[in-house]
Design brief:
Elements lengths: L2 H6 L9 H35 L1 H24 L1 H26 L4 H46 L2 H4 L3 H19 L1 H37 L1 H10 L6 H40 L4 H11 L6 H13 L4 H26 L8 H43 L3
Helix pairs in contact: 4-5, 4-8, 4-10, 5-7, 5-8, 9-10, 10-11, 10-13, 10-14, 11-12, 12-13
Amino acid sequence: MSPSTQAAAPQPQDPPPAPIAEASGAQVSTGDAIQAGVRGTDRRRGILAMIDHPLVVAFVATLGVLGALVLGSAIGSIAAILIYIFLALFISLGLDPVVRRLERRGVKRGAGIAIVFVSFVMLVALFLIFVLPPVLAQILEFVTSIPEAIVDVQQSDWFLALSTDLQLALGSGLDQISTSLSQPETLAAIGGGALAVGIGIVNFVSASFIVVALTLYFLASLTAMKQAFYSLSPAHARRRLSDMTERITASVGSSLIGSVTLSSINAGVVFFLHLVIGLPFPALMAVTAFVITLIPLFGSVIFWLLATGIALFSSPTQALVFGIAYLIYIQLESYVVSPRVMNRAIAIPAALILIGAMVGGSLMGVLGVLIALPVMASLLMIVREVVVPKQDRKV
């Protein structure tokens, strides 16, 4: 064997560099672990620093709470303005279908807006001039005539024909009502309520100018507002958003017009029945019917019970005639008038209608009840056409 071969023989026995690589790999992994430990230590130190400085944490939390309180106070201070804006927006949505109907007949949009808006203002003015004064007068007359009406009821033939126990029970209840109405604190409360009504009328007149101006602006720029809203969405979703928005606004407008139309017909029927039957307070009861029948689905039944009970103070015969006549109208309204007036409204379950009316009435009073139906219809449409299909695609 040559010397060169002897020199080359030990080469395979040399140790491979793997331990070095393993050592270096171990060093790298150890370094990563050290860095991760340092980062975890930094996180723990940050948390411990916050725990070690409770005054700083309390100060930051206090600033957050104060910011939330200031924001809530600011929203509360402009709550009336927000109500004006929502009211004007819903009125404009309710008037827009009429404007579009005029447009389909060849009237330009500007002229259609002027015609509809002038008609709307004239209706409000006629209500303030010819309807509101007799209603206020009949409210005062109704309150002052309650004690005398109670006495007349106790002396009527139908009351005397009742059993003795029932007469005593009803008589004691009527006497308590008469006594409470004759007390000074009750009269003061009534006077304060009348004063509050007067102040409310003044505020209503002043707010009407704001609502009228906003309604005119929204009605004129409704198309531009929709286009600006569409531009905020992605381009691929604008067509679907536009279609859904148009359907929602059309449903809202139709629902508002339908609700006001049905309530107006109710008020007219009540006024006519009171005049024909000879019941007192026809204007007051007509306005009461208009307000109560704005409650969807159950408003007419509620007013039927209320008005029939009030008519009993005049005469059982008159109350019976009114109850039968108005019950017949309720049936006509349910099966003939309402399907024609509310033909474009979305079908909503009765339970959701009742819940929406109660929630809207609790939050915004009569206005909340009025907008409860279109809002529930819009939410139901969104759930049916957006949420449910999205969930159906998740297999």
